[in-house]
Design brief:
The chain is of the alpha+beta class. The chain has helices spanning about 15-25, 35-40, 55-65, 110-115, 140-145, 155-160, 165-175, 185-190, 200-215, 215-225, 230-235, 240-255, 260-270, 275-285, 290-300, 310-320, 325-340, 350-360, 370-375, 380-395, 405-415, and strands at about 30, 50, 70-75, 80-85, 85-90, 95-100, 105-110, 125-130, 135. The strands form two sheets. It has a seven-stranded mixed beta sheet with strand order 3-4-5-2-1-8-9. The chain has a two-stranded antiparallel ribbon with strand order 6-7. Strand 8 (about 125-130) and strand 9 (about 135) form a beta hairpin. It comes from Acetobacter musti.
Length: about 425
């Protein structure tokens, strides 16, 4: 059915670009998230179009009107139109010919309902043309009105087509759903949770990081625990998922920044995952080297607290050895742990002051290098490294204040062995 509700494009800064596409492809429609977010009055990040025309015709028509057409995903029917340096994806209507739970073999169609039927959730299956009228074949308008995230058609069929839809459910439920998720959907997800093992690690982490940084992250991870999904995604949490969720919730209540690496480290720390297993976990999920190193380092020491960092020398020694981002992250985890275990004798204000000090203090840099020792007359060789290590230890113990000349004097007077 078609719901007679209309979107107004009044005041939309990109409307001239949308109009240009509709002039070239008059039968095309906006689809998916753009329609959903405009109905909710939210900012739209991406305007995606669908069209009955095949990709070659789309390309031909765009280029005939001077619009650059980029073949970003022609095998899947997608061409990107570049207008005023902004890309608009235009995808040919599709229907699934065959699916294996990870990939789908598609065929072009001119049937809008067939295309909508292959989408994941009803709130993502609506479309609208240049007249602004909404085309809603599966009740997305009503679901959006009552904050319900529901699969298009039979949940088990949609999940069977692509198991990643299980994780997408939690992402959209956290953003658009009410506190009482659709029971039929949860039942299907519970039964199909083992299918997650068939997904690539990259796809799993891509969704997990979005859930971690999205609204209602703690409650979504609890829901993932209840349905058996979290154990499938992160086996290292098995049997300790509740503790992991408790720790994540405590971190969020402390108003820590919504950083996926920090929140992921909180899950692992809450489940008391040992360092070796943390390393194996980030490796298995194929985190980038930067993200993996950050998660691993957040689980390390030293952990600054208001009680242990009392003077400027304490602060300098910390900053000399560990990046400020890591130290700050560790303070959030320590504060979350204290709150969780009701060790709240340290006021929140003291944690805030500590983080401010960490972020505003200048990072001390050891002023001596091997070339400085050689230039002062010392003989090059393995002994230079030993001397540098001893001098740095002395510099560090002294609060990282000594300059280059003082370090050279110490090296000559205390560490150079007589020939």
């Amino acid at each position: 059915m078609t719901e007679q509700r209309r979107i107004s494009f009044d005041g939309l800064s990109l409307f001239p670009a949308l109009q240009k596409i509709w002039t070239i492809l008059p039968d095309s429609r906006l689809v998916g998230g753009a329609v959903r977010d405009m109905l909710l009055g939210q900012d739209v990040m991406d305007f995606d179009f669908a069209t009955p025309e095949p990709p070659d015709k789309v390309t031909e028509r765009l280029e005939a009107r001077g619009v650059r057409a980029i073949p970003t995903g022609v095998s899947h029917g997608t061409v990107t139109a570049l207008i005023d340096s902004i890309g608009f994806e235009i995808t040919t209507l599709r229907k699934d010919e065959r699916t294996d739970g990870r990939h789908a073999q598609v065929a072009w169609t001119r049937n809008w309902r067939e295309d909508a039927a292959r989408r994941d959730f009803t709130i993502n299956a609506m479309s609208c043309g240049s007249d602004g009228y909404i085309h809603d074949y599966f009740g997305g308008l009503n679901d959006l009105a009552v904050s319900r995230v529901r699969f298009v058609g039979e949940p088990r069929e949609r999940i069977g087509e692509d198991a990643l839809r299980i994780l997408r459910f939690f992402r959209f439920q956290g953003r658009f759903g009410d506190p009482n998720p659709d029971r039929k959907t949860l039942s299907a997800i519970t039964d199909c949770a083992p299918l997650i093992r068939n997904l690539s690690a990259e796809r799993i982490w891509s969704e997990l990081r979005r859930i971690l940084t999205g609204p209602n992250a703690a409650s979504m991870f609890r829901l993932m625990t209840q349905t058996g999904v979290l154990d499938q995604c992160i086996p290292e949490l098995k049997g300790r998922s509740d503790s992991a969720c408790n720790f994540l919730e405590s971190l969020i209540v402390c108003a820590a920044p919504p950083d996926e690496r920090l929140r992921f480290a909180a899950l692992l720390q809450g489940a008391a995952v040992i360092p070796d297993d943390v390393a194996r976990c980030v490796l298995r999920l194929h985190l980038s080297r930067l993200d993996a190193n950050e998660v691993i380092s957040l689980s390390g020491t030293p952990v600054p607290t208001p009680d242990t960092v009392t003077g400027e020398d304490d602060l300098a020694r910390l900053l000399a050895d560990t990046p400020v981002r890591t130290l700050t992250g560790r303070t959030w985890l320590a504060q979350a742990a204290a709150r969780l275990h009701d060790q709240t004798e340290v006021p929140e204000e003291d944690w805030t002051i500590l983080r401010h000090r960490l972020m505003t203090e200048t990072t001390p840099v050891f002023p001596l290098a091997g070339r400085d020792l050689i230039a002062s007359g010392m003989i090059a060789g393995p002994r230079i490294g030993e001397i540098l290590a001893e001098v740095r230890r002395w510099w560090w113990q002294g609060g990282c204040h000594a300059g280059k000349e003082a370090c050279l004097v110490f090296a000559k007077q205390r560490l150079v062995r007589p020939l």
